[in-house]
Amino acid sequence: MAGHSKWANIQHRKGRQDKLRSKLFSKLAKEITVAAKMGDPDPDKNPRLRMAVKEAKSQSVPKDVIDRAIKKSQAGEGENYDEIRYEGYGPGGVAVIVEAMTDNKNRTASTVRSTFTKNGGNLGETGSVGFMFERKGEVTYGVGAGDADTVFEAAIEAGAEDCESSDEGHVITCADSDLNEVSTALETALGESDSTKLVWQPTTTTELDLEGMEKLMKLIDALEDDDDIQRVTANFEASDEVLAQL
Description:
With about 250 residues, the chain is α+β, with helices and mostly antiparallel strands. The chain has helices at about 5-15, 15-20, 20-40, 45-60, 65-75, 105-120, 150-160, 180-190, 210-225, 240-245, and strands at about 80-90, 95-100, 120-125, 135-140, 160-165, 170-175, 195-200, 205, 230-235, 235. A hairpin with a 5-residue loop joins strand 1 and strand 2 (about 95-100). Helix 3 runs antiparallel to helix 4 (about 45-60) and helix 7 (about 150-160) crosses helix 8 (about 180-190).
């Protein structure tokens, strides 16, 4: 697997999510507020909100934080956020997609451009690297959900396109438009998932050595430190030996 999946594993090993838990909670709450504001405040009637709440729960966001984010949308509180996608190249020619949610487009564009430049990359135009990715739905389960054959069978029965299993768990992918239906069917068959979200799945990858990975990590860390940035995806590939040294 490349890009988002390996990056999540690297973050986990680094303990980064623990260090930035409050920042992570804030970004997840923002997604919930925006999703609720754009549709029905009831997750059962709003697929995007349902996925946002599920992702928040998977990251151990407290129920009161989730409820407060939904209520905030109905009270007309807070800023109105624009969703923007930035595309560019990182160190080693790796393609990078940055998803932002901002109340000030000029501020965010300036920050993203500067961050790319300072960390050995360059920001491109919309569409400059998007063709190297496909928008997919992704549902993950831990190893306790079942063996590879059991989960694969459940995934295909639910309408998913593929399922990859490893010692770390199961990653099920489907068409982006099918994510709500597939995740619901999987819950019936396998129980509550660890995570349900839309991702950018690389269709082509760029191999990096240890030095290249360290430079890319520095860029992604800097981007994710910005409160306006929701997600960063890169199409890197690295050997197990390189990943073990990070």
